[in-house]
TrEMBL record:
Its EC number is 1.1.5.4. The keyword Metal-binding does not apply. Pathway: Carbohydrate metabolism; tricarboxylic acid cycle; oxaloacetate from (S)-malate (quinone route): step 1/1. One of its GO terms (biological process) is tricarboxylic acid cycle. Belongs to the MQO family. It is an enzyme of class 1 (oxidoreductase). Its cofactor is FAD. It catalyses: (S)-malate + a quinone = a quinol + oxaloacetate. PANTHER family: L-2-HYDROXYGLUTARATE DEHYDROGENASE, MITOCHONDRIAL (PTHR43104). Pfam families: Mqo (PF06039). This is Probable malate:quinone oxidoreductase. The gene is mqo. The keyword Magnesium does not apply.
């Protein structure tokens, strides 16, 4: 019998790559295997063109700072997301120092982060948001302006053609970044393979059950080119299969996945690599979402740097498909239906009719309407310079809250078996940008007995491990400066 794997990673995306790299640093002798259903890693959610919301640090994403009923701004989620991104930056910096990420510019580049709004109410909101964040140590350097000339100097495409009497405002942080998680995934997985991990491309996991006799997980794996299905055994399994994680966790039979469902949302972006346009815009500019729109549909005009080449994206334009993966099946949604989650699907759908209607209107939107949405950001934009591309598929979590009510939850959630031998990740944004803290959560839930032995190495890789940067402004400043220097980006 083949020696069991210590770790089986299902899915060749940034989550599996991150967890595998962490575990390899903690236990270099462990036997790790990665199973990817496609012919290359990072081709689904982690691919640069499928993962358009990059470098999430809550510097500009307005959905992380909602306005309370009393008119004040709630910054708790923004601080949380920024803390998480700083954990990722610390780990990447450590890998650079160890020579495991040889060229940071291949995956991270400086791109200022901006918020931009129009209309008196939105301007008042953005001013309050600025006041609430500007003195926080993780948002140092946040700038605010209502002056069209200043905003034009930050992002020239936003102002020409706009009515001069229109109230506008923007915030800007020059130290923002753009992250190519497709490139990062390739580097990390190449590093794992160099250290002895096995990579199985075109291998789809069709069966996942735990042996009552041995306690090992049995993975039935089908090679898509037609070979006889193989069987692997593993002591620990991580399901990092994007939207397909729900279906695989259901097949595992763990009780913890009961009641969960998945609501798929597809998306499109307008894209241009016209040199004249790209030269005039170097920023990630986020606006406010439409009423009824999910948080992941916040409109933004983004500079992207992929394979060293800059281009612009605008969107997203949300849509609906019953696929759970961009390369999946239209039967994915129906395959996820179970007796224990049927009322979750029904209840969440009935409670989110505004979301359903929003998706219907988005699906029916013409190209002309999509260009008009772009022109709200860049009034002089010409549709002939932009082409429509299809982004990755996202599957939002459907579950029951503490009161037993069905909800759609935006964000990510780790679902782990009670014995810690299996875990999977459900949900979407901010996702990849917070991959490291999410995988630290997996480690904490699944390897509690290793906590004390692993702590020194975890603290060496992530100095803020177990604490927060925002609790000490001096530590926050020194950490941001140190990681910026290591990654070659502005502090």
């Amino acid at each position: 019998m083949t020696e069991p794997l210590d770790v089986a990673l299902i899915g060749g995306g940034v989550m599996s790559a991150t967890l595998g790299t962490l575990l390899n640093q903690l236990e270099p002798t462990w036997k790790i295997a990665i199973f990817e259903r496609l012919g290359g890693v990072a081709r689904e959610s982690s691919d640069a063109w499928n993962n358009a919301g990059t470098g999430h640090a809550a510097l500009c994403e307005l959905n992380y700072t909602p306005e309370r009923d009393d008119g004040t701004i709630d910054i708790a989620n923004a601080v949380k997301v920024n803390e998480q991104f700083q954990v990722s930056r610390q780990f990447w910096s450590y890998l650079v120092s160890e020579g495991l990420l040889p060229e940071p510019k291949s995956f991270i580049n400086p791109v200022p982060h901006m918020s931009f709004v129009w209309g008196a109410d939105n301007v008042a909101y953005l001013k309050k948001r600025y006041e609430a964040l500007k003195d926080h140590p993780l948002f140092a350097g946040l700038e605010y302006s209502e002056d069209a000339a200043v905003i034009r100097s930050w992002a020239p495409l936003l102002i020409p053609g706009r009515r001069k009497d229109q109230p506008i405002a923007a915030t800007r942080i020059p130290s923002g970044t753009d992250v190519d998680f497709g490139s990062l995934t390739h580097i990390l997985i190449d590093g794992l393979v160099d250290k002895g991990a096995s990579l199985h491309l075109n291998h789809r996991v069709t069966g996942l059950r735990r042996s009552r006799r041995t306690g090992l997980w049995k993975l039935r794996v089908k090679h898509d080119v037609g070979s006889t299905p193989k069987e692997f055994t593993a002591r620990f399994v991580f399901v990092g299969a994007g939207g397909n994680a729900l279906n695989l966790l259901q097949r595992s039979g763990i009780r913890e996945i009961r009641g969960y469902g998945g609501f798929p949302i597809s998306g499109q972006f307008l894209h241009t690599d016209d040199p004249a346009l790209v030269r005039r815009h170097s920023a990630k500019v986020y606006g406010k979402a439409s009423v009824g729109a999910p948080p992941m549909s916040v409109p933004h005009l983004d500079t992207r740097v992929i394979d060293g080449q800059a281009s612009l994206l605008f969107g997203p334009y949300a849509g609906f498909s019953t696929k759970y993966l961009k390369t999946g099946s239209y039967l994915d949604l129906f395959a996820a239906l179970r007796w224990h989650n049927l009322f979750t699907f029904i209840g969440a759908g009935l409670k989110n009719l505004s979301l359903v209607w929003y998706l219907v209107t988005e699906v029916l939107a013409t190209r002309a309407k999509k260009i008009r949405a772009l022109q709200q950001f860049a009034p002089t934009a010409d549709g002939k310079d932009w082409r429509l591309i299809t982004a990755g598929q996202r599957v939002q979590i459907m579950k029951r809250d503490a009161d037993g009510k069905a909800i759609i939850q935006f964000g990510t959630e780790v679902v782990a078996g009670g014995d810690g031998t299996i875990a999977g990740l459900l949900g979407a944004s901010p996702g990849a940008s917070t991959a490291v803290p999410i995988m630290l959560d997996v480690i904490a839930k699944c390897f509690p007995g290793k906590k004390n032995a692993w702590r020194p190495q975890l603290e060496a890789m992530i100095p803020s491990y177990g604490g927060t940067l925002s609790s000490d402004p001096a530590v926050a400043q020194s950490t941001l400066s140190r990681t910026a220097e290591a990654l070659g980006i502005p502090a």
